[in-house]
Design goal:
binds iron/sulfur cluster
Amino acid sequence: MKFPLTQQLIDEARTYELRSACRDCFYWDARTSKCRHDWPDEGQRRWPLDAKDPDTGEVPSHVAFCKEFELR
Ligand code: SF4
């Protein structure tokens, strides 16, 4: 699911130490840098939420939350 990346979401993610990215997911294989379910991790892998796009250098306008996320 994709949501607009708002300043409120960025602030709340920091305040409450949100864990929603692949790096905090049980299904993330850090050794291979891939999802064990082979999901595309576009947007979901990014952390922090407002990290700049490495290709464009811009802060993204949306954030993705994966329905299969399992906190490890
Ligand atoms: S299940 Fe979703 S959140 Fe977990 S590693 Fe795969 S893409 Fe990332």
